[in-house]
Amino acid sequence: MNDKIDKFSFRLFLVDLFIYNIAFFVVNYLKRGTLVLSPMYMRAWFELFVIWIIVGLLIKKYYLYSYKSYTSVIVLFLKSALFTAYGVSFVVVILGLSEYSRIQIYGTFVVLFSLKIVMLSIYYFKNSKKLITKIAKTEAKPKEKISLSGFLILSDFIFLTLSFFAINWYKRGSFVLPAEYDEILLVIFGVWFVASYITKKFDKRYLGDYAYAVASCAKAVVLMTVIMSVLFFAFRLFYYSRGHIFGSFLLLLVLEALLYYLYFAFYTEKESQKDIESADELKAFLKQHRLDVDVDDEEASRLPLNPVREKLDNFLDFLNPWLFGFIDSSITLLKIDRKNAAILSTDTLINIETIDDNLLLLFINLHKTNNIRFVNRYFLEIYKKLKSGGYFIGNVETIALHQKYIFEKYPKYIAEIIYFVNFLFRRVFPILRGVNKAYFAITKGRNRTISRAEVLGRLYFCGFKIIAEQENKGSLYFIARKTKTPSLDQNPSYGPLIRLKRSGLNGKMITIHKFRTMYPYSEYLQKYVYKYNKLKKGGKFRDDFRVVSSVGMFLRKTWLDELPMFYNWIKGDVKIFGVRPLSMQYLSLYNKELQEMRKKVKPGLIPPFYADLPKTFDEICESEQNYLQAYLKHPLRTQWVYFWRSLYNIVIKGARSQ
After folding, report:
1. Strand order in the sheet with 464-472
2. pTM of the model
3. Which residues of 326-356 are buried (b: 16+ CB within 10 A; e: fewer)?
4. CA-CA distances (angstroms) from residue 601 to 581, 584, 596?
5. Concatenated DSSP letters for 588-634?
6. What CATH number is given for 273-398+450-482 in this structure?
7. What is the pLDDT of residues 156-184, one digit of tens each?
8. Residue 367: how many other CB atoms lie within 10 Å
9. Could you read off the pLDDT of 328-386 as tens digits, one per residue?
10. Residues 441/261, Cβ–Cβ less than 8 Å
11. What is the DSSP letter of 365?
């Protein structure tokens, strides 16, 4: 671009100033018969002039490159006149200068615009090369089809209405509008529609960026403000409250910013931001199907030159002496070298991703898992950094510990309210479909509550084995070891309806449907729970912390959790009466003979347990073996006898699931 064209033209400025003065004094003469300005209109002349100059600078009116063609200059002059009229009207309305003449102000713009068009036309047709810059014509782009969001339009209309009534309540202490304000509200609706259309703030094509969307709303509010200012001045509407009108616009902008924040949380969350919650996603993350996690015993038996024990003791002695004792009693720290250990306090994955893969034998994060946005991705990043047999030490504030903290701090009735609100916001919202997107957008996943079963289950899902766990100062500390391949053949269940893999006829795996009675990821903890808790009377796991409080117990005792299994009965996977479909872990507790016998029959909804009411696991195995032997010889007679015996025990004796 030519340097002369690119610079500010003082000549254009002087010409503009000259024409402005002619227009203002001409209108004053036509209205009052004199060129002498009164003190009030001397002030008006100055205010209008300042706004005229500001608008000219903003729209680049004093730069030659803005004068591309005859049509573009006309548009430039029109914008200058309109924007200045808007600005002056706003100043008049805000300062309450109702004594100003509308003819004097708006007439000046009309005369000014007309004079400039006449002068431009004469100059352009006589000698266009001196001023008008020639540019190559470009092909007109086809108009893009507008795609409006009905949800945003409806929401914004409701917000505008609420804003108007909210300001009315703030100013007058009532939601009932004064009689004359019904009419101005209809005018505001019209102005809102025009401003929204001009700024395209509801066009989906322009909603790819939060800042841009809010900027469009701000432009619309500014346009609504200046249009209303013109209407105020032009029709002498000064008896309406300016605070009411413009306060409504400002409140609308605040509500719109919140609306778009939630809108982007719902509809623009990228796929890469999702957590890893399926076997396929886990495979893609690890970029392989199976991992070799065999521990090199010979390498592990060698004592390092610089054991991490002393350094870790000195470091934790200041931060958490108890934690060192917990780690030292669970891990042989003398076999871990300092170069293979890392201790952090972070809730961001970037700090972990910088560590080399397959490097560490010990990783400690002092930060609570509750503040990690993507828990599985976090655990898997640590899994990649650890060598086979490496240890991961972390901590979490569980639901039970959070509840204990609240009830110890507050009186009972207050604690119940606080706990309910906390549980709803910090536990239910993060797992409630739809709402969870807004929750994570607002909180970034910080400070949510997680059950003990879920955090341990997630560790097992991600390829860890729990070595030790212990509570201290409101947190559950855990030591997990990388000893197995992550679960690449089973997807965790999260919703109210769960799907569980069970052994069916001929050993074929079938999918059983049930209502959830356990915390998410509980299915990965069967071996862990059995190892430490064993079984109780009736064959269930003792002290099974995976069950969701009293709700889960109620569903189990009333068999409501098993209603979806009728779908499996309709499909033909199970029959009404028969041995229970078991997980492979629980089935492994049976002897080989009984396992093979179970494969020969289709599992059922009502097990032999209710016919014999065995008390111990051995008695359960004996009960099932007797039933299977009888069924394989006389299927119909066995079903008939066992069905009525079970019905009698359930109805008369009140036998229930434990």
Report:
1. 341-344, 360-368, 386-396, 475-482, 464-472
2. 0.58
3. bbeebbebebbbbebbbbeeebebeebeebe
4. 10, 16, 10
5. TTS-HHHHHHHHTS--EEE-THHHH---SHHHHHHHHHHHHHHHHH-
6. 3.30.110.40
7. 888 999 999 999 898 888 888 887 887 78
8. 15
9. 999 999 889 999 999 999 988 888 988 998 889 999 999 999 999 889 999 999 999 99
10. yes
11. E
Partner residues linked to 498 by β-bridges: 514
| Highest averaged pLDDT of the listed ranges 157-161, 211-215, 547-551 | 157-161
Distance CA 337, CA 334 (A): 8
Per DSSP, the three-state class of 541 is strand
CB distance 288 to 463 below 8 Å:
no
Give CA separation, 433 vs 314, 426, 439, in Å: 46, 14, 10
Q: What does the block give as tokens for 179?
A: 């009689």
Please enumerate in sequence order all residues whose Cβ is within 8 A of that of 138, keeping only pairs 6 or more positions apart, or say none.
Answer: none
Tell how strand 464-472 and strand 509-515 pair up.
unpaired
Instruction: For residues 142 and 657, give the distance between their C-alpha atoms in angstroms, rounded to a whole number.
Output: 70
The domain spans of the chain are 3-130, 150-268, 273-398+450-482, 497-651
Distance of CA 302 to the CA centre of its chain: 48
Core vs surface per residue 217-234: b (16+ CB within 10 A) or e: beebbbbbbbbbbbbbbe
Q: How do 360-368 and 604-606 pair as beta strands?
A: unpaired
Q: What angle do CA 291, 295, 298 make, to 5 degrees?
A: 145
What is the DSSP track for 249-262? HHHHHHHHHHHHHH
Question: 579 near 598, Cβ under 8 Å?
Answer: yes
Task: Characterize the bridge pairing of strands 604-606 and 575-577.
Answer: parallel
Question: 515 forms bridges with which residues in the sheet?
Answer: 497
- The span from the CA of 252 to the CA of 240, in Å, is 19
Q: What are phi and psi of 558, to 5 degrees?
A: -95, 0
Locate tokens 């862990």: which residue?
Answer: 528
- The SS3 of residue 75 is helix
d(CA 22, CA 4): 28
Q: Looking at residue 339, what DSSP letter applies?
A: G
